Amino acid sequence: MRTRTFLAAALSALAVAATAAGAPAAPAHADPAVAQAPLVPLPQELDPAFYRPPARQVAAAAPGEILRARRITPANFGLVPLNVDAWQLTFRSTDTSGRAIPAVTTILKPRGTAVGPRKVVSMQIAEDSTAGYCATSYAVQHLNASPLLGQVVAPAELLIAQGFLNQGYAVVLPDHEGPNHAYAAGPLGARITLDSLRAVKHFAPSSVTDASPIGLYGYSGGAIVTGHTAELKKTYAPELNIVGAAEGGIPADLEVVLKAAQHNVTSGLVLGAVIGLAREYDYFRAFLNSHVDPLGKAVLALKSPLCVQYQAATFPFLNNIGFIHAPGGALQAPAVRRVFDDTRMGKSLPDMPMYMWNSALDEIIPVGQVDRLVGQYCRRPGARVTYTRDHLSEHMIAEVSGAPLALLWLKARLDGNPAANGCRTTDELTMASRPQWWPTFSATVGADLAALFGKPLGAGR
How far does the signal peptide extend, from start to end residue (predicted)? Predict the structure, then answer.
């Protein structure tokens, strides 16, 4: 969004400059009153008053400043309410071109007060979609229709989030694709995630403060954002107390992921990422408009408003690269090389310890590009990386086998136990064979089952 007055533009520029310089962003105005969300939630397309505040108001705000707030009722698969406190915030963030944008985040908090500073996990759910009705903020609410409309990942990953809630942690769920649903635009998602955490700190009911330790979690499409957030944090939001990041199924290099999807069952899902990138990068959108053939444009138009389930199911086994006609070949075109470079991880070493895992047999996210990312990190002084390759899983199973150990690793960081210095790479037949896996997995499943019967998750912890 662009500003309409010189004053708003100046304020926006000053806020961006201050953030780029590493200065903590703080709200310039009093927080808005907390409203009650509608009984039947509305997706972004039907709720512009909450999701799209006036451009002047957004531009005049500081990064992370709260613009709207409301209380919601979260629920498993939209049907069974969770017994936790929950709110959503609209706040100001910044896109990769430096423009002020509105963004939304969801806060889930165990009822009651915490013992010591409230611990936080920011969970970047794999939205992998290109429409507002697929966004996390809609998909976690009671009586939402997302599961029927193709958003099956967000409610499934909410089960993992309940494992964090059961530990007494606040869970933050940013709509990291932004107002234009820019799937796979990792640097954008990183800015939104960091500004989301700023907003949560400024929201008193969350009980999150400057002293609260924060962990990051993301798998697959969520790992795109988590990885970029870990890299960007030290320059964009150095004041945040992020103590570790856990990510799995890591799309560190989208060029490799695109090539792996060629003529493959996952080509439809990855073509959705092409749509998302064109929404964030103006130069890439202009290139596609000029170089995609008519059949390709028709396919892109049909896939443009779809959630992840239908993104994946429509048009598998496509020759995605064949839709693009450019001198020297599509993958050598300057705009394509540039978007791959702009979204490739490994440009800087995160200033926090990293827990990373990937299936060695992953059919969507090739393990080799994760190996290279780990190598890039570990050649730099100060790296703290724990990396596991799982040899008895594919892409979806790898989250089930890896998430319980990621929870344990994050718990140690949030409890103040430092990660070991240096790098460690381990090959496992299956991560589920570790002794600590089953107790953690069963405790999470138990929390999910208890939540179905109204148990207050993590209360008083």
Answer: 1-30
Which of 299, 326, 342 finishes a domain?
A: 342
The answer, yes or no, to whether residue 2 has pLDDT greater than 60, is: no
Q: Which domain holds residue 245?
A: 6-252+348-452
pLDDT digits (tens, 9 = 90+) for 206-244: 999 999 999 999 999 999 999 999 999 999 999 999 999
SS3 per residue for the chain: CCCCCHHHHHHHHHHHHHHHCCCCCCCCCCCCCEEECCCCCCCHHHCHHHHCCCHHHHHHCCCCCEEEEEECCEEECCCEECECEEEEEEEEEECCCCCEEEEEEEEEECCCCCCCCCCEEEEECCCCCCCHHHCHHHHCECCCCHHHHCCCHHHHHHHHHHHHHHCCCEEEEECCCCCCCCCCCHHHHHHHHHHHHHHHHHCHHHCCCCCCCEEEEEECHHHHHHHHHHHHHHHHCCCCCEEEEEEECCCCCHHHHHHHHCCCCCHHHHHHHHHHHHHHCHHHHHHHHHHECHHHHHHHHHHCCCCHHHHHHCCCCCCCHHHECCCCCHHHCHHHHHHHHHCCCCCCCCCCCEEEEEECCCCCCCHHHHHHHHHHHHCCCCCEEEEEEECCCCHHHHHHHHHHHHHHHHHHHHCCCCCCCEEEEEEECCHHHCCCHHHHHHHHHHHHHHHHCCCECCCCC
Q: Do 318 and 430 reside in the same domain of the chain? A: no
pLDDT one-digit tens code per residue, 286-341: 999 999 999 999 999 999 999 999 999 999 999 999 999 999 999 999 999 999 99
Confirm whether 11 is domain-assigned: yes
| Residue 88 sits in the same domain as residue 105 | yes
How many separate domains does the chain show? 2
Would the pTM of this model clear 0.90, i.e. be above it?
Answer: yes
pLDDT of residue 29: 55
Which range, of 266-275, 408-417, 436-445, averages the lowest pLDDT? 436-445
315 and 186 share one domain: no
Asked whether residue 433 falls in the same domain as residue 300, the answer is: no
Q: What is the CATH number of the domain that holds 335?
A: 1.10.260.130
Domain at 113, CATH number: 3.40.50.1820
Q: Which of 321, 342, 363 marks a domain boundary?
A: 342
